[in-house]
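SAMPLE LOG
Freezer: B-3
Tube label: C17
Construct: single chain, 129 aa
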Amino acid sequence: MSTTNKTPITFLDVIGRTIIGVINTDLTDDHTLAVINPALLHIVPNHGSGQIQLQILPLFFREFQADKEADITWLYLRKNIVENTGIDLDFRVSEQYKAIVNPPSPIIQPSSSIATPSVNEQKTIRLFD
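STRUCTURE (predicted):
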């Protein structure tokens, strides 16, 4: 990744979705905003609590790529997006985005200590395994 600033930015795309990502400074110019690993900020109501929840969804899932570790850069035409002038994201939003883009490595347990998952644990569904 060639960008020097890893601070996530937000903007509105051509259909009004809020996008979060990191600017690729090498590919960005006056006409194009190059965004590394863009994701959609999605707000959904929590019917149980009456509050809202934030979901961050990648625009393209790495599971579909041949190289699962490679970054994805999307080019947005500046004339088709709405950029802001200095929104500082809450650290929790930035950290959630970073966790989605760079998930922690799974902890591998020795085969002799395999535990049976409890009923409350959710099973992860992996694509193409």
